[in-house]
């Protein structure tokens, strides 16, 4: 080092001091920060994979639910294939949650093809409005003249109180649900509850067309 350089260094040291500009604490802070950056970079891949996995599960569940509703609507179309057009048009207008609870018989499930099928809706504020968000009862009438039989089928989306009788018999449907059966001469009444929805089938004016076993078979056919 030349004399000039030594003199310059001496004067610089006196001006800024001989203490190092970068201390050990500064170095430790720098390396700790660098290690944290490396650790964060290493954690990025597993976090991304977890996020992608959760997204994939969400998409799968979404399409599963969509498929369930689509399958139900397709099934409903098949079941009501031979229903009158005015009945089918109203069924199509029901919200999906109502369509999902419509457990209905095919016309071929009856002892003979019904000559008349009607549907009425107890809804608010307007009656017979399938688009209403307040539907208390959906009633179907299946009727035939020869052979004579009449079937009233009521669906209560929000549940209903059973009309109990000491003469009722508890039966098990093919899907495992418990139902109450009342037999009164030529009349049969079968009631059951499924996931909060109450169902009631009343078979009257049968003139022997329906017996106890065939009445139960009719209800079971709706769950095929």
**pLDDT averaged over residues:** 82
Q: What is the total tally of β strands?
A: 7
Strand order of the largest sheet: 1-2-3-7-6-5-4
CATH topology of the largest domain: Protein Transport Mog1p, Chain A
Q: Class of the largest domain in CATH?
A: Alpha Beta
Q: What's the helix count?
A: 5
Spans of at least 5 consecutive residues whose pLDDT stays below 50 are: 65-74
The first-to-last residue Cα distance is 101 Å
- Percentage of β-strand residues: 15-25%
Largest sheet: 7 strands, antiparallel
Q: Radius of gyration, Cα only, in angstroms?
A: 37 Å
Structural class: alpha+beta
When the domains are counted, the total is 2
Q: Please give the CATH architecture of the largest domain.
A: 3-Layer(aba) Sandwich
Write a structural description.
The chain has 224 residues and is an alpha+beta fold. It folds into two domains: 1-79; 85-221, Protein Transport Mog1p, Chain A, CATH 3.40.1000. Helix content is 42%, strand content 25%. It has helices at 3-16, 24-79, 85-93, 96-99, 212-221; strands at residues 116-124, 134-144, 149-156, 169-172, 178-184, 187-194, 197-204. It has a seven-stranded antiparallel sheet, with helices on one face. A hairpin with a 2-residue loop joins β6 (187-194) and β7 (197-204).
